[in-house]
Amino acid sequence: MTDFVTRFRAHPRPDRKVTYLSDGRPATELTHLELDRRARAVAAWLTGSAPEGAPVLLLYPAGLDFLVAFLGCLYARVVAVPAPLPLSGASRADRVDRLLADSGARMVLTDEAHVAALGDLSARTFEETAVPDAGEPPRAPDPDTVAYLQYTSGSTSVPRGVEVTHGNLTHNLEVFGRVSGEVPVRRIGGWLPHHHDMGLVGLQLQALHAGADLVLLSPESVVARPIRWLRAISDHRVDWTVAPDFGYAWATRRIGDEDLAGLDLSCLTMAVSGAEPIRIATLDAFADRFAPVGFRRTALNPGYGLAESTLVVTCTSRGRGPTVRAFAPAPLATGRAVPTSDAGGVPLVGCGEPGDMAVRIVDPVTGSEVDDGTIGEIRVAGPSLAAGYHGDPAATRATFVTGPDGRWLRTGDLGFLLDNQLYVTGRLKEIIIIRGRNLYPQDVEHAAREAHPDAGRGAAFGVRDEESGEHVVLVQELRRASRPDPADFAQVVLDAVTKQFGVPVSIAVVRPNTIRHTTSGKVRRGHMRELFLSGGLPILHRALSPAVAATVAAPEESHV
């Protein structure tokens, strides 16, 4: 298998281009040939500035400069470290300092617009005119050498740098590319950040690997006006896009009828959904909302993956559409998936069939493989498995386990296999166990959002009392611009959630934008639990059971 770098360098297509759509400004473009030439220049410059294998922190806004710098790092065989362009203030200093310390990076690259603001980091920008002869980049990389560090989202732990090798990257791009079937992909487009594995591998690098056009937007522009995403798909005839469940839900809610004029989504044959739990309600709503402008439900491609497997593990093939089955709720709560045709069944979305990556489900305690239809920890094996966590051999040994049958990744995710389809049900560390019954926090959060029109994001987690066991706690935001009475709001949500799940729930009502989440939109439930227990949340109203109240430090008070 020819590695990604060698393949792209050998055949950079002059008829394919990368386009960045900047709101209010002219689009910027590079052909693949121009992109390769600029990346070669960066590589030549890096070869004289950083030793081979050295980590280089990349702090770039959305746009084409990041992709040039990233490819230049791969060409020069230095280790790229993509990271979000930091905000000002203490949070910026803290995150960047942690990344610098953890990665060991001694060089920081950014674009010309931000080099002054990042001067305290000795950030540098590449001046192409300083290298008159880009020349040939170094020899093809060894497949076992590290290509880049992919920092995990940190939704359940401190972010770690996953060491993705050149061999890992090449294999995963091949795996993901086969999802499209025999029909070549012509244009890939989307807005996910380049420092997120789905945005980097599933969007930008996949386009280069497939020899397809690439259309990019900034995450900020799409969050502000999601019609920009669909307008780009329509105008540029994009046939492959990727987004988390949040992105499809946000577009459905925020795009009005007046925005649909002139929109044509019939070109879109692959709309990949991943990176967070996939809800059938989101898929149905998106398909129904945009069917009048040509979107087909069969274009939806639910998938499952994580940074430790480079990106994709499984994904629904193009044209098949989502696999959705209903399961009896009582067995599901005790770890068994029993299909049912009853109206009260719990619908779950399949994430595709295992193929190039091996998938097994094991008992989380014993590690023994379980039968189909039994919920357990998802484990993964295959050439896409990363080398480990940078500078953390203990975490690497605990997560990437080697046995008689090879090397397997303990994902920490819960799910089951049925009829060769993978279903993901939750996170092992986040599951709430009430008297032997498993409650998934995302289900509690969804029920709360459905209970009241003013309910925004929520974070559900368990709090343990030594005498009475585990209790469900819900930190629930109000929507922006809504002003219901917090006590009345809390009661409506509590009544609905308690009725649906049949267990007592404690609630803390908070302002909009209180729930912490990762750069890819995952709720940081562990962090929210810590803030709640420490009394560090400004709470508008609380209704806590005595057992939960006894575990909480003196809380902050807030007012509407």
UniProtKB/TrEMBL annotation:
Gene Ontology CC, one term: plasma membrane
Molecular function per GO: adenylyltransferase activity; ligase activity
Taxonomy, superkingdom: Bacteria
Record GO biological process: Actinobacterium-type cell wall biogenesis; fatty acid biosynthetic process
The entry's keywords: Fatty acid metabolism, Ligase, Lipid metabolism
InterPro entries per UniProt: AMP-bd_C_sf (IPR045851), AMP-binding_CS (IPR020845), AMP-dep_synth/lig_dom (IPR000873), ANL_N_sf (IPR042099), FAAL/FAAC (IPR040097)
Domain AMP-dependent synthetase/ligase: 13-390
Family statement: Belongs to the ATP-dependent AMP-binding enzyme family.
Protein name: Acyl-CoA synthetase (AMP-forming)/AMP-acid ligase II
Organism of derivation: Saccharothrix saharensis
